[in-house]
């Protein structure tokens, strides 16, 4: 429903944030990972949003970036994990730490998170292992090269590669490679080079 909310940071706590937008306060449930990145109260901030609607509830969940939200949504795909537990999991581990624990089948680390028992940890590993491979590739590439996340033109090129039938990990690996070159002014030029390295 909402992609993001931008406003003045009115309140911040380890579990929720209040943003003031022209006199209207929006309360968003947030993880500890997001809380640690928030600026000082009174500063402007932009949080990406997931809207959870039920018959008797309307809750907003806020995220520092789309990566954290994507991991949150992946958690929601697991039977028995609702928004509150997903948020608790992302408070126990950062998105990168969680992905690493899943990929390494580290049940012990997953069990250390409040609310995550042995069965839930096993479900996380069984159902999500391998699903984050492309995200890990991009994160590693960005960390290694010091490059920022993909801009809108790069995202369009990625979508074009996927539309052409390339698997997501392959397409994202190609994008990570050509980001080093940079200097692209048109989508066509970017896509042409991407097709040469896939």
From TrEMBL:
One Gene Ontology cellular component annotation held by this UniProt entry: cytoplasm
Subcellular location: Cytoplasm
Segments of this protein annotated with the region Domain I: 1-64
SUPFAM superfamilies: DNA helicase RuvA subunit, C-terminal domain (SSF46929), Nucleic acid-binding proteins (SSF50249), RuvA domain 2-like (SSF47781)
Pfam families noted in UniProt: HHH_5, RuvA_C, RuvA_N
InterPro entries, per the entry: DNA_helicase_Holl-junc_RuvA_I, Hlx-hairpin-Hlx_DNA-bd_motif, NA-bd_OB-fold, RuvA, RuvA_2-like, RuvA_C, RuvA_C_sf
Family per similarity comment: Belongs to the RuvA family.
Protein name (Swiss-Prot/TrEMBL): Holliday junction branch migration complex subunit RuvA
């Amino acid at each position: 429903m909402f992609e993001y909310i931008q406003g003045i940071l009115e309140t911040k706590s380890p579990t929720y944030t209040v943003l003031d937008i022209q006199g209207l306060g929006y309360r968003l449930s947030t993880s500890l990972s997001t809380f640690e990145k928030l600026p000082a109260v009174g500063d402007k901030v932009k949080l990406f949003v997931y809207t959870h609607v039920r018959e008797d509830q309307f809750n907003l969940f806020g995220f520092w970036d789309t990566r954290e939200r994507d991991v949150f949504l992946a958690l929601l795909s697991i039977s028995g994990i609702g928004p509150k537990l997903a948020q608790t999991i992302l408070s126990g581990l950062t998105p990168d730490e969680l992905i690493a624990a899943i990929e390494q089948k580290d049940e012990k680390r997953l069990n250390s998170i409040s609310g995550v028992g042995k069965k839930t940890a096993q479900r996380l590993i069984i159902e999500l292992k391998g699903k984050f491979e492309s995200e890990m590739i991009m994160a590693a590439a960005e960390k290694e090269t010091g490059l920022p996340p993909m801009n809108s033109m790069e995202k369009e090129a990625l979508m074009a590669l996927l539309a052409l039938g390339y698997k997501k990990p392959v397409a994202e690996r190609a994008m990570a490679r050509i980001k080093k070159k940079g200097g692209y002014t048109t989508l066509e030029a970017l896509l042409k080079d991407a097709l040469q390295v896939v």
